[in-house]
Specification:
mainly beta; 5% helix; Thrombin, subunit H; 6-stranded antiparallel barrel; Peptidase_S1_PA; Peptidase_S1_PA_chymotrypsin
Length: 164
């Protein structure tokens, strides 16, 4: 496992060693009729505004949604660690939701259907139902691990191609 220990970005990466195992870009939901949703796209830097609707799939609370309160902020933890580039959201969350996928809904180019865009990971819960999110943009730009992303391709299911 690779992780940003004692750094200003909060995340962990798990290396896939089994070549025959296929990874799918999807999130687990709390809706019995639709137990999983496939991610159509990944947000590597699009600036979604404060007030935008955003959701997470966490182990403790399943899928819940809320509204973005703050972008690109600092989170100071009691143990003396500060994390930067955090998106803060008010939504139902528990401590064991950390590491969960954060996503949002957009319309397709022709407005015919909704698409799901992966945005980041659940980093911390604080002060009740407040969630700190680390956006994907800052994970892939984190200098000590940039070499891990050089040969990684992200699957963009929307246009059936590969996005470097």
């Amino acid at each position: 496992m690779y992780y940003a220990r004692r750094s200003r970005i909060d995340f962990a990466l798990i290396e896939k060693l089994e070549e025959t195992y296929i990874l799918n870009a999807m999130v687990r939901t709390s809706i019995p009729e639709y137990p999983t949703l496939f991610i159509d796209d990944f947000d590597f830097g699009t600036s979604i505004p404060v007030g935008h609707h955003i959701c997470k799939s966490g182990y403790g609370t399943g899928s819940t949604c809320g509204i973005i309160n703050t972008l690109n902020s600092r989170l100071a933890l009691i143990r003396g660690t500060d994390f930067y580039h955090i998106t803060k959201v008010n939504m139902e969350t528990l401590e064991n939701d950390r590491g969960g996928t954060v996503f949002y809904f957009t319309f397709s180019d022709d407005n015919a259907y909704f698409m799901i865009s992966g945005y980041g990971i659940c980093s911390h819960t604080y002060s009740g139902n407040n969630l700190a999110i680390t956006p994907l943009k800052y994970i892939i730009e984190f200098q000590p691990i940039r070499h891990l992303f050089r040969n990684v391709l992200f699957i963009n299911l929307n246009n059936s191609g590969l996005v470097p």
